Every structure is written in structure tokens, then in C-alpha cells.
Amino acid sequence: MALASGQWVHVFPEGRINYDGKLGPLRWGCGKLVCEARQVSGGKDPVVLPFYHSNMGSVLPLSGKGFSMGHEVEVRVGEPLKLDDLTCRCDSPNLADQQEAWRLITERVRTALQDLERQSPPNPDQSASAPTKGGPPPS
């Protein structure tokens, strides 16, 4: 596992693209990923560095016309998250305890991303031209 060996892994914990320009609900899989990386690495927690970018919808709009030049994208990077008070629960033999650890880790990631979102310029709302479920983006 790349994460357990200290390599960079970029994760969008929402698990999908949100076209309304706002941070969507996070999937607990990001917490599970942290726990699994810890277990595979012999108990060493991975570094979780939250970051949030704004205005990507202007650079790569849903119009399907490709990249649009001349737009600024702002990236805000937070501090590495302290998770050791939660990751110690990853080692529990009880699956319910492990799942609670995944949920709590995900909640801490969500809080950090929401803080960065509040500090960032708003993203454009493209929900009116978002693809229907299972369909391609409009052209």
C-alpha cells in the first residue's frame, strides 16, 4: 500500500464530484484508509494533510469544452491532522469499534476541510448543467 510506505496519496474523501460548488458529505472510507495504512505500516500513522481548492470549475467547466485558461485556482493547505487519539482505536478486534474509529477520523477530516472551505473564495455552482445520474456531462 503506497500510503503505508510513506508515499503521497491524494484522496477526494467525498467520493464523487459535487457540482454545487460546496463541500459534500465525506465517505467513511477515508477513515478506513488511515486505519489500514496504520495497520500495514506496523502502527505508524500516515500524515493526513488537508487541502481545499477553489475555482476548479472555472478552469475545467462542465460545458465540455476542455480547459479554460486565464482563471486563478486557489489552494489552501491546512496543518497535518493529529489523529493518534483516534487511530489507537483502529487496532480493536471489535469491528464496531473499528468502524467508529473510521467515522471519527472522517469527521476530523471533514472539520478541517470545512475550516479551509470557509477561508476560500466560493466555487462556482454548476449544478444546473450537471450530468444526470449515469449520463455524460452536457455538451
Automatic annotation (TrEMBL):
Reaction(s) the record says it catalyses: 1'-[1,2-diacyl-sn-glycero-3-phospho],3'-[1-acyl-sn-glycero-3-phospho]-glycerol + a 1,2-diacyl-sn-glycero-3-phosphocholine = a cardiolipin + a 1-acyl-sn-glycero-3-phosphocholine
Membrane topology summary: Peripheral membrane protein
Region annotation (Disordered) ranges: 114-139
GO biological process assignments: phospholipid metabolic process
Gene Ontology CC terms, in alphabetical order: mitochondrial inner membrane; mitochondrial outer membrane
GO MF, one annotated term: O-acyltransferase activity
Main location (coarse class): mitochondrion
Subcellular location: Mitochondrion inner membrane; Mitochondrion outer membrane
N-terminal signal peptide: none
Keywords attached to this entry: Acyltransferase, Lipid metabolism, Membrane, Mitochondrion, Mitochondrion inner membrane, Mitochondrion outer membrane, Transferase
Pfam families hit by this protein: Acyltransferase (PF01553)
Keyword Mitochondrion carried by entry: yes
Ranges of residues in domain Phospholipid/glycerol acyltransferase: 3-52
InterPro entries: Plipid/glycerol_acylTrfase (IPR002123), Tafazzin (IPR000872)
SUPFAM superfamilies in the cross-refs: Glycerol-3-phosphate (1)-acyltransferase (SSF69593)
Family: Belongs to the taffazin family.
Protein name: Tafazzin family protein
